Amino acid sequence: MSYYTEEQLKKLGFKYLGNNVKISDKASIYNHEQIEIGDNSRIDDFCVISGKIKIGRNVHITPMCLVAGGVEGIIFEDFTTIAYGVQVFTQSDDYSGKTMCNSTIPKKYKEEIFKKIILKKHSIVGASSVIMPGVTLGEGTSIGAMSLILKSTEPWGIYVGNPAKRLKDRKKDLLDLEKEYLENEGKLL
Fold first, then answer.
1. Greatest Cα pair distance in the chain
2. Cα-Cα-Cα-Cα dihedral of 104, 130, 24, 52, to 10°?
3. What is the DSSP letter of 69?
4. What's the pLDDT tens digit per position in 98-139?
5. Distance spanning both ends of the chain, measured CA to CA
6. How far apart are the C-alpha atoms of 28 and 43, rounded to whole Å?
7. Which helix (H) or strand (E) element contains residue 188?
8. Prior bond of 63 cis (ω within 30°)
9. Over 90: is that where the pLDDT of 153 sits?
């Protein structure tokens, strides 16, 4: 994978850019001035990132993800990951048939949903999952591959399915590893 250099990243005009940020030169990023990216975060090949986005530290957006922050925005708290092909939408048309749909239709003929999304610290979303507007993933949430997340989750749960449902509790052992990592981080950079 080929990444932008630090100099190239600075020229793109991000709202905030932390240290050791890696962004693939094959990612498509729009609205740089609305995007904040924390230390040690990475965006891989073939991702589309747009709108109002705040990415914390040590966040990984893996290949082929769509992150559509729109007006309301998406917050990726520290140590979150979205796996291959995950799609995150802060806006959607109303599919009920009450109004018309799609981007070619003037606003007066359609009703769109606009809601913020938050992925709390240590959340991980499995490959090809979809997160819909208004969802907050509670701290430590783990989402299984190919899940549809329509509702917010409780902290430290493992969720799977279409629609996603809580399967069981997730272990918190990683919190000790986080502490150790942060204490030793200076040695890692």
1. 58
2. 60
3. -
4. 999 999 999 999 999 999 999 999 999 999 999 999 999 999
5. 20
6. 10
7. helix 174-188
8. no
9. yes
